[in-house]
Amino acid sequence: MYKIKEHYFLSKRFRTLYPVVIDIETSGFDSTIHALLEIAVITLKMNSLGLLEQETTLHCHIKPFTGSIIDPNAIAFNGIDPFNPLRGAISECEALHSIFQLINAGIQKQKCSKSIIVAHNAIFDFNFLMAAITRNKIKNNPFHPFTIFDTATLSGLAVGQTVLARACKTIGLKFDNNQAHSALYDTKKTANLFCEIVNRWKKLGGWPPTQ
Question: For the Exonuclease domain, which residue ranges apply (predicted)?
Answer without folding.
Answer: 18-203
